[in-house]
Amino acid sequence: MPKNAALVLAAGKGTRMHSDRPKVLQTLLGTPMLACVLQALRPIFADDIWVVAGHRAELVRAAFPEARFIVQEQQLGTGHALQCALPGLSAAGYTHLLVVNGDTPLLSAQVVSRFVAESSDADVTFATIELEDPGAYGRVVRDATQGLSIVEAKDFDPALHGPASGEVNAGIYYCRLAVLEHLLPRLCNDNKSGEYYITDIVALAVADGYKVAGVRCGHDVALMGVNSPLELAHMEEQLRARIVNDLLAAGVIVHAPELVRVGPMVQVEPGAELTGPCELYGHTCIAHGASIASHCVVRDCHIETGAEVRSFSHLEGAQVGVGALVGPFARLRPGAILEDNAHVGNFVEMKKARLGKGSKANHLTYLGDADIGEGTNIGAGTITCNYDGVHKYKTAIGNHAFIGSNTALVAPVCVGDSALVGAGSVITKDVPEGTLGIARSRQKNLPQKKV
Ligand code: UD1
Ligand code: CA
After folding, report:
1. Which of 112, 163, 305, 384 is most buried, with most CB under 10 Å away?
2. 33-45 and 109-119 helices cross at what angle (nearest 10)?
3. Dihedrals φ, ψ of 13, to 5°?
4. Helix (H), strand (E) at residue 192
5. Distance from chain centroid for Cα 34
6. Please, which residues bridge with residue 160 across strands?
7. In which band, very low, low, confident or very high, does the pLDDT at 451 lie, cut at 50, 70 and 90?
């Protein structure tokens, strides 16, 4: 039985991106490129996935705390990255290794498993794609006398290698580890880039009589790399269209589908309704019967059945219960919880705050570090004053309470069940259950001075 591992090459700087951020942390639909690659590998390789990090490795590690890393201190090329990883992988007892470039974000589990299945009886295999313009990709040379090889674009010379065929190296390889142990020490950097190329193992393996295959994958966009902002934008659009088409095929109702952006980790159940333009990112889940209107941005949220998120709302790290209403123009920040049938209206901001079943905060309100029970009404302009400049404090409001408009609740403070707070109050002391709290100066009506 082969013991498989996957190795993702992610140590490069990505010079052509012109960014301080390591290339594998560049995002498509809010998700780092590397996360897309790991997502494609996980169904096949489970925990046997290793990542080579190097350029700003600390940032890559921090973004993927659960991944297993190998460090390539100096980035001397893709072949050198593999050299750095090999001793650890051999020691771990793997027999076969899938190596993939970390800048191939459209990779899918189906493509990977098909490639591995087609590779199983060779010593070294690599995937090839057909491009009209081979650009900076490594050219696949199938030569009747010298056999198969990959020649990097910079080193390609038609006089030497024959006319370019349009068949290029996709940057995904499947090899027997024992063969790599044998070949890798012989890589050299005697080429136009002065780098150790992983691609040279193909010619070395052919020369040593190993079984080598270039698996033709046609024009499969899933195997294309991202090297520049232009390619990133192109691949992001491809991914966007693929995800939205998959949602439509699964039974999600999508209006203006060309304007809907849904990240690769987002789950949308059949029967949910999305209207473009809108953006759903992170680990968001949208249940059957929930709807997201136009101009909303939703990140890492759970939206339950029948909940309605109206236009121009911005939600992050929030839970929206069954039948709840949000917006238009609402902002839910991390830790906002709307229980079933709760309502949050225009220009309301919530952070680390629970709004109990059927409770309403419909206008111009800030609820931060607050716990609000069921059936409570929060009047327009209510503010929980949770911060004294140093510490944050909590506000607790019970069930069936009524907070009058333009109330400041100076935390820490509690308003009991069925309590009433008069409009315009500045509440600094608890309001016990069933009482009326008023904290404002009494109105005086004075005669007007005649001039
Ligand atoms: C590489 C291939 C090329 C192929 C193309 C497909 C080589 C020499 N060339 O070229 O044949 O057509 O991918 O997309 O491999 N990396 C490291 N350490 C390094 C250098 C790079 O981990 O020292 C990583 C990068 O982070 C990247 C991947 O390896 O994820 C590929 O490197 P990149 O510089 O993008 O190679 P290409 O020029 O695209
Ligand atoms: Ca690349």
Report:
1. 384
2. 50
3. -85, -35
4. none
5. 9
6. none
7. confident
427 three-class SS: strand
How far is the centre of ligand 2, averaged over its atoms, from the C-alpha of 138 (Å)?
10
- DSSP 8-state class, residue 116: H
**Rounded to two decimals, what is the model's pTM?**
0.95
Question: pLDDT tens for residues 258-305?
Answer: 999 999 999 999 999 999 999 999 999 999 999 999 999 999 999 999
**Rounded distance from Cα 66 to ligand 1 centre (Å):** 24
Q: Are 212 and 130 in contact (CB under 8 A)?
A: no
Pairing mode of beta strands 308-309, 291-292: parallel
- Asked if the model's pLDDT at residue 426 lies above 90, the reply is yes
Residue 185: both structure tokens together: 């020490």
Residue 171 CA: nearest ligand 1 atom is 6
- At residue 143, the pLDDT reads 87
| Cβ 106 vs Cβ 238: under 8 Å | yes
| C-alpha to C-alpha distance for 307 and 341, rounded to whole angstroms | 8
CA-to-CA distance for 156 and 192, rounded, in angstroms?
Answer: 10
Residue 145 has pLDDT above 90, yes or no: no
- The answer to whether residue 302 is catalytic is no
